[in-house]
Amino acid sequence: MPYILSDLREMKRTRFSSPPETVGELNYAITTVCLTYLKQFGLGYATINDIVGALECAKLEIYRRLAAPYEDKKAAQNGDVFPPQE
Prior knowledge:
about 90 residues; mainly alpha; elongated
């Protein structure tokens, strides 16, 4: 997951001159990072698996930390669509 040492985080974060401003730019940035990793480690099952696994885990962490709490807040505000669990 993204929990690497803080000094490494800052170093890696400065690789991009500016953050993506559109979903297309975000997709391009993510793809570019994945292709750089692919170039470094070579095309093969393990590298593809590494990339797909990292993307999946990043997706799940974003969902867990951002989307789920947001949805819980909205369900509390607007009423839940699921019946209470027994």
